[in-house]
Structure formats: structure tokens, C-alpha cells
Amino acid sequence: MVVDVNRSVWNALAASSGFDVDLVVPKSWKSNLIKELNYSYNAETDDHLSSIFSPTVFFKGNGSLTFFNPISLWLILNKKKYDKILLTQETWSLSLLAFSLISLFTRNFRTKIDLWVCQNIKKKHLKWLTPFERLNCFKVDNILCCCSEIQEVIKWKSIEKKCRYFPFSFSAKQYHSLQPIGVFNGPLKLGYIGRLSEEKGMGLLEELCERLIKEELPFELHLAGSGPWQEKWQELAAKDQRIIFHGVLKHTEAYRFYEEIHAIVLPSLTRPFWKEQFGRVIIEATASGRAVIGSSSGAIPEVMKQVGMPFNFQEGDLEDLLKKVKSCYDLFLSSKMDDVLKRSQQLSFELYDHQSVAARAQDYLKNPEGNHGLITNSELSS
What we know:
By secondary structure, the protein is α/β, with parallel strands linked by helices. The chain folds into two domains: 4-169 and 353-378, Glycogen Phosphorylase B (Rossmann fold, 3-Layer(aba) Sandwich); 173-349, Glycogen Phosphorylase B (Rossmann fold), CATH 3.40.50. The chain is built from 15 helices and 16 strands. It has helices at residues 4-17, 43-46, 70-77, 94-103, 130-136, 149-156, 202-214, 230-239, 254-258, 280-287, 300-306, 318-333, 337-352, 354-366, 377-381, and strands at 22-24, 28-29, 37-38, 51-53, 57-58, 67-68, 85-88, 113-117, 140-145, 162-165, 188-195, 219-226, 243-245, 263-266, 291-295, 311-313. Strands 13-12-11-14-15-16 form a six-stranded parallel β-sheet, sandwiched between helices. Strands 7-8-9-10 form a four-stranded parallel β-sheet, covered by helices on one side. It has a two-stranded parallel sheet with strand order 1-4. Strand 5 and strand 6 form a beta hairpin. Helix 1 crosses helix 14 (354-366), helix 3 (70-77) crosses helix 4 and helix 13 runs parallel beside helix 14 (354-366).
């Protein structure tokens, strides 16, 4: 929530629903891309929120081990009686434990918590934690899931809570002016933006470049981000003008990166400790009128299907990735890609911009016992 875009959907909810929405965000945070993030008020993303509290946190940047200063949290929860508390964390998190226990000694001792989780891996080596997780959810009313795989994980843990689909969102404001590619004259400009690490498929992306060079398919590869592979990509960019490294970009500047390319490549690889949980880059790229070539890791196929993107390949399979890149290239040459991109752009706005996701939250909050938002095969395959 320190990053502005992560607060925007709640600001949109407050603006459209008339609800009083208070936010509790870390005073500072450490992330994979930026070493130190500090919360600061932004009128564009915060102006409709009733209050924003930014207490210090312990173990910042350490995911489920982090928790807010207990005294600050008690003061916040005792200041106002809430109808609902929504916490973005995992079922085993210390933050959930702290919120649940501290709230018992405040005006919110009866207030239920909705937990927005992202963990979509059945971590069998941590199965011993399951009894604690079930106990840790004693104040949880519903579990909000950014992809359908999470529901299977919750069932596997025997946590008996309703699961509701609640995806990530993006700011449509910066993308409405962007148009699909139109006339394509080559080369095919591929892009990657995000964490430059092994599990994100950097090795496979390097192999793809080698094959495209060997097969003489005209291309460029634009990269932006940071991580363990940053130095390697900088070296490759210095040797080959077809590889362009843009460095670290602010999230608010991401739309400018999409203007430079024709298609995003998302070659993520499933690992025991991680797999793709949503892939916000998919909805940002399609909202920009760009194509997406994504692996089968985690939620990538689910999101790509939602926005009508056909270039899904088997993760780790270079030949399948190369096949999808060539299909994308041929579709651009045939001028048939324009219709695909326009439809995908429309779906991105309809399903995933802040206002659309905020409307989903509003409908659910106004009718918490209804079926709206319950994860169903029809919703995620429509």
C-alpha cells in the first residue's frame, strides 16, 4: 500500500460508493525493485479516503513476518468502529494474528476481517503450519483471491471460508489515449518489465534472443527493471543493439514503456517457493493495446483468457515460446492483430481498471451474504 497504485482501488471505492474508507499503510517498506519506499500523501490516489494511518512496521519487506506497531494498531482500531476490516496478507501472517488479537480489545472486537491473499502454491513442506493457519483465521469472514488457484490452496488447508474472486487492478487514466499498433512494418519489438530474476524466466528469454537471431527473425527486446540478472542484460545490451535496457522505471511511467513495444513477453517459471499469482503487466499491456506472450505459470493463462490473448506457451519450453512469438509476428503482418488488440484492450478496462474492481467490492460489501464475487468456473472462463 506504500505504492500509490495499490491505494488507488480503495480511493475509487470511496469515491463511487459513499463508504468511509480508512487505510492503514506501512510508514516505509522494502521491495524487490526499490530498496526503500516511504509513504507520502498523493491527492490523485488518496483524496477520497477518510483517513490514512502510516504506523511503523516490524520486519518490513519480509512478507508474512511483518506486523504493525501493536500500540499504534490498538490506537487506530480503538478510534472508530468499522463494519469491515480488509487485510492484505496470508493466512499464516503475523499481521493477521496481530489484527485479530488486538481488535478484541478495541471497539472492533466483533468486526470481521476479510483476508485478501495471493499464495497459490500448496507448500507441502509447510503443511505443519496448517493447524495454526486455521486458528489464525478465527476472525476471518471471507477470503478474497486474486486468482482461482488460491481457492484450491485454501481447500487443501481445510480452511472453511468462502472464497471470492478479487483481482488486481490498474489505473486506466494513463492508458485511454494509447491505441493498438495499426500498420506493422517490423521488427517485432518485444518487451519485459519487472523483476529480473531466474524464476521470472530470464534464462529462457536469453535463449529466445539467441534463437531469434539464428533464425533471422527481425526483433528488438526492450527490458526494464532490476534484480540479479540486471548486470547480465546490461552487458548483452552493450554488445547487441537489438537489446535495449531501460533501467528501473516508476510504475506511473510504465505506460511509456508499452508505447515502445508491440508485445510483452512473460516467461515466468514455477518454483517450489513461487509462481505467478496474477501478472498485472498483462492487463497493463493489453490496456495499452499491446499483445502478451505468456507462460503457463500460475494465474497467467487465467488472466490471458479473461482478456482474450491467445499467445500462451508451456512454461520453460523454448520451442513453444518461439512458436508463439512467430504466431504473434505473423498475425501482425497479416493485419489481423488489430481486432485482437482492440477487443483485449476493451476487456482490460471492463474487468480490471480501478473503477471496475471497486464496483465489484461495492456490490459485495452491500450484499455480503449474496453470491456476488464467489469464485465459479463460469466467472473465470467467460
